[in-house]
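Model: You mentioned two targets. I'll fold them one after the other.
Researcher: Yes, keep them separate.
Model: Target one:
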Amino acid sequence: MTLKSWKTRKVLTILFLTVFLPVAVFFANTETNLFSRAYLNLTGKKADLTVNLTTSLPFEPLWSSLAQGGEEKGGMLESIIPQVKNLRPRYIRIDHIYDYYDVVYRNTEGNLDFNWINLDKEIKDILATGAKPFLSLSYMPAAISTGNEVDIPAKWSDWELVIQKTIEHVSGVNELSIADVYYEVWNEPDLFGDYKVGKGKDYLKLYHYASYGAQKAQNVHDFKFGGPATTGLYKAWFDGLLGYVGRNYLRLDFYSWHKYSKNLKDFEIDLISISSWLEAYPKYSGIEFIISETGFNSENDPGYDTEFSAIQTLGLYALVSSYQEKLKIFTFEIKDGPGDKQKWGRWGLLTHEKFGEPIAKPRYKAIEFLNLMEGEGVPVYGHGTWVKAFSVKSDKTMKLLIVNYDPFDKHYENVPILFVGLPSSRFTLRRRDFLNETIEYPVESASDNWKTEILMEPNSASIVEIIPSQ
């Protein structure tokens, strides 16, 4: 190598290290994720929808489960009962039932005693919305804890008794007498308490004695019992818990976890993964899967105050509509906590009453929009990367909800739709755009199959309705 070529190579190396490499690193790590976006645009699949009206499927409104976080001690739902009732929830989840509602105390003899007044008020508000309670058995009562609210009890028999008495009170025939209540052992144990599986501060022990308490509950209505409500779906936790309950003959009616992601594919991967993992545990083949908190970001995010959160929610429920059997998904959360302004990027469907009458945010409107989809399920094929859809029919009327969700807010798509097995060749086609206008016009088809196309703007949703002519 000559001196000149060596100097040239040295200059190029320095130039690469000082200029090009930092630029490449910046773009590789930037939050806008430009390379991922470009790759997605090149490789994403467009939708080509087929709606088969000749058959029907069982259908449950998976969006009818709502969760309220521990924003305040008690009375969180009291100011918004009519607004929540309007959403027609079937279950409402709350946590902090022991540390926020002062349920457990020691009497003058030093024995455990229970005061249900504050918790009963919250449960009464849940019932007033038309929903049933889904109770996260959290956190550790001060009267039995070795430390704070996320520590283990001084005596495991005390924790067992707390669970037994809770179930006997809420589900007891001679107490609140509520059937089909869900009891979930803890809330995000991998975060709140730093619990592990099978070692150290062991969640399995927490679950073990809680299960004993549930088993001892007497004179109660049917109820569901499970956990672990981890921050995400983790195979080590799944295998650890199912293996343990199987070996120890413990009760497990459902397996729960939380999921926050802007990428809808992540939710689908979770459902596919857990279904695959369950095959190793045939004894528990009938358990229910529950995502007991969902959203697009587990932290505060301005998007929760905008239409973005609504479209992500609509896209999620369009995606999971085909997973009808033994699945619940809880939208988190119902009402914002009291921030320093009315809208502060909190997760709520509704704003806090601190700033006046609670305001319905776009995600609240998304649940209202979903509630228009009533009836029997109808198979829909041909989903794409961005466009998801599901369909229902009632009598002879059919509705198809289509969602074009793009986290980058860029993707337009002209969506082909083939309707197979129309009940009438003459009908009215109605298109209702989310938070926008409704248009309709008459159609006459040459056969009982009919094809059309609908242009979907980025982050938009529409309900297409076929109404047969009389």
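Model: Target two:
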Amino acid sequence: MKIGLITIRYGLDITGGAEFHCRMLAERLSAKHDVTVLTTTIKFLNKPAEDFTPGLEIIQGIPVTRFVTDKNLRSEKKSKIARKIRRLIYRWGLAKPIFSLFPVWKFKVDDESTYLEGHPFYSSSLLNYIREFQHDFDKFIFFTYENPLTILGSLLVPEKSILIPTAHMESMLFRSINTLLFSKVNHIAFNTESEKEMCLEIFRNSLAKNTIVGIGVNQIDDLAAATTISAKYQIKSPYLLYCGRITPVKINNFMAYFLKLKSEKQIDLQLVLTGENTMDVQQDPDIIYTGFVSEEEKKALMLQSFAIINPSLAESLSLLTLEALHLGKPVIGNKKCDVMVEHERKSGAVFCYDSFNSLSSIITYLQDPNTDKNIIAAKAKEYVSKYYNWDLVLSKFEHIFKES
């Protein structure tokens, strides 16, 4: 079966969760299928001068074709009206009667399409490629619901499209055009139960066939980096670790909480952040930015950490959480994120905070010598093994391929 995977960015040094999800899936599907990745030349979201070269590249045995983006930016003003109306309906508690009666909206879809054609990620050449060569492919797997390649690409080939939405609660989810996307694709592969339930509330009975598929977790056996990574960045144990894009949405108010813990509670912890940083650097001797690190270095940092943090409100799965649990590490998450609360409820190794005091209590509990870390580690590993192993994930995709 020939399968095309479509994502905004792709590469060994791309740290975004959905992009990494795409790469892991592509590499594993390629064992049984003819896999091609279609992506843009974007490398860093805010550094166009460092874009990749367009054309074909082979990465870990996977053909990757990069297409330039159009860079024809347009205002979103006209396209916001529909999503504002739909979100108000949801906030007022009227989603069930109204969205059940009118599941598919076409109001302002043309304006939304026009805006998407002027989006920074829009690539007419990539979409034209899908249009021209669609008959060469059996399936297309699109990553992240909100970008123009997914929305416009899926609607070009809905009968062949599998959507991995990676959706979380945000205003973009309420666009009218998403009622077409989520109803017309052949199948939706959700990451978690929380994500599916949220989308059911919004798209109601029009939601396309769907499965909770999730993702597997990579096994890293070579941990030679463990002896050198701490010295390289002058990291002292114990430390909290965050891995991924460092943005205001992802970090939320954790920086302020951490500094308050240091000043008021005198906790003996450092905070280590890896990945692409788009925030102002916080000048503090106990806050360490490493920049991009390899997978081996990341896993080494995880193993040596006190706990992994994920303060984000916007998660559809949190691959970082699964990787940490796979290694038997406790995870501290944000209770305002439904996905993290789901992981907390099911795993017994995720601890969610909703205030400074609750965060302080979690850290105190994990630092307590009477807290059995071995039990936490065992629960963490069991959770990932049960729900997020690659054999299970790939078998679900094979079932989707045969049914669709």
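Researcher: Noted. Anything on target two?
Model: The chain has two domains: 2-216+390-403, 224-387.
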